[in-house]
Amino acid sequence: MSKKLAIIIIGEGDTKLDDSSLPFEGISIQELFVECVPCSLRFAVEKTLKVMADKSVPEFVFIELEGPAFPAQIKESLEYMPFEDLSFLLVYLLDAGTFSSEIAKLPNFIIKQIRESDIIGINKIDSTDMAKVSSIRYMLEAINPDVSIFEFSARDHDEGFGKFIETLVGN
């Protein structure tokens, strides 16, 4: 049985996704324009979820934030929305080919995002050597020893990607 997923993209209007652009059923996509994320995100997301729920109540909501956002602060503000059984995971996705494995080269906001994450997905492991992937994993574990880390190639839908998705759906 497939799950209903809502994707809310907090962006600048350059998203090329909508409900008809994905080859999957049960996915609803909304793009939000929020000028001050800490000030108004909760209310914008709440309103958007209510509109989406009029069509179909989502079982999972994926909120994509661009730039130097602080997910834990946003999660905290969203936890008070009036929806039953709503829970949150902070998921951080990174590109193994372009991500630095040296803590000193990472901006502070990225270190904070990693530290606040519940799950980290190291994507595009097929675009670099496994030594770099191992180095990235080691660095991530040094920043956040309690995080669950998954290595995968989403493009290839490999075993690691399957485990990543199962974990997201299971929480």
TrEMBL record:
It comes from the Archaea. It holds the Pfam family cobW. Residues 3-150 form the CobW/HypB/UreG nucleotide-binding domain. Transmembrane segments: none annotated. This is CobW/HypB/UreG nucleotide-binding domain-containing protein. It comes from Methanococcoides seepicolus.
